[in-house]
Amino acid sequence: MPVSIRRQLESMRNKFFIGGDLGDKKMTLVKWDKCLASKQDGGLGIGNGGVTTASNSNLKRSTWGAILSSINNIKQKGIDLISFCSRKVSNGIDSRFWSDIWCGDQPFKMAYPRIYLLDSDKNCNIASRVCLNDWSSVLRRNPRGGVESIQFRDLLNIIRGISLSDQRDSWQWSLDSSNGYSVASVRSLIDSFILETGSEATRWNRNIPIKNG
Predict the structure, then answer these.
(1) A GO molecular function for this record (predicted)?
(2) Bridge partner list, 170
């Protein structure tokens, strides 16, 4: 949805909520962002979490282009959705040994840069390296003393205890690793960044009379 259309819809919802007509201006007693926030976060829980989509100028022709554009827009607000996605390695065929984050909190090319530069195939998969007995067949030359030897030894110690399975590699969502990715988990994350939150959940008071006029 274009941003301009979303803003028009939000304006209509806001005026309807406060009981105003399109041509009237009535005082808003509660911020609209607080209305959109969930009740658990001190809001009124009537909104869609304030999630914005890509504008017409940023929208790509393909579906993936539109998704990536939206992810980049959200990242500019301080929410990096990609950082919550990580590789779950099984057979190691569909995951890259050096570039993917699959063991530890950073890719191996960052943790062991000197050995990465020596590898003749920097796009190799995990299966081709974890099960490798003779590294001299894939390195441009054997590691020399100093930093290269230390990094090579540490790398071998880490991958020595890794065992692969027959299943295909997959992705896992770190915010809810037990149930996997869900739109609800993304919405809750974006709400916590964008909308106002409070320490107490909102409770509707049914004794307040209905607003007239």
Answers:
(1) RNA-directed DNA polymerase activity
(2) 88
Backbone angles phi, psi at 170, to 5 degrees: -145, 175
In 3D, which of 107, 83, 99 has the Cα closest to residue 172? 83
**Residue 113 belongs to a domain:** yes
Tell me the residue ranges of DSSP E strands in 89-181: 170-173
Whether this prediction's pTM lies above 0.70 is answered by no
> Do both 12 and 82 map to the same domain?
yes
- The answer to the question of residue 80 being in a domain is yes
100-149 pLDDT, tens digit per residue, is 988 888 999 999 999 999 999 999 999 999 989 899 999 999 999 899 99
Per-residue pLDDT of 62-88, as tens digits, reads: 566 677 788 888 888 888 888 888 888
Contacts of 69 (CB under 8 A, 6+ apart): 54, 58, 59, 60
Query: 158 lies in a domain?
Result: yes
